[in-house]
Design goal:
By secondary structure, this protein is mainly alpha-helical. It contains 6 helices and 2 strands.
């Protein structure tokens, strides 16, 4: 067992912070693409739903026939459901999930981190 000097401890903290910020930064492009895809598919689904609902034929035919008559809405809706089953709801917030989990672990050491991964050192509690 070897005790860590203050300089070594600072080096380890800086290395951890560097790696954490790098990891969160690397997630940003993919997260942005997933968010854009979710927005596009959501807008397509909403537009298709609006057209489906305002179509007077929708009320006159069966549910499945009305879906068959509106393939844009049907495909958009199926795509949106598929994206949620594939976990898009987790992928659009992945950096926040990583930061939150790190905060949970770091709290035991009187530390925290922001959403970019920068460490926040909290003052040590005074023991009386």
């Amino acid at each position: 067992y070897h005790s860590v000097t203050q300089a070594e401890g600072q080096w380890y903290l800086k290395a951890f912070e560097r790696r954490l910020t790098e990891y969160i930064h690397c997630l940003q492009p993919a997260t942005g693409r997933w968010r854009m895809l979710l927005i596009v598919v959501s807008v397509c689904t909403a537009t298709g739903a609006w057209n489906w609902l305002i179509d007077p034929e929708t009320q006159k035919v069966s549910f499945f026939t009305s879906l068959w008559n509106h393939p844009f809405f049907t495909i958009s809706c199926i795509t949106l459901i598929g994206l949620f089953f594939a976990g898009i709801h987790k992928r659009v917030v992945a950096p926040s999930i990583i930061a939150a989990r790190c905060r949970t672990v770091l709290a035991e050491y009187n530390m925290s981190c922001d959403d970019t991964g920068k460490l926040i050192l909290k003052p040590r509690p005074h023991v009386q």
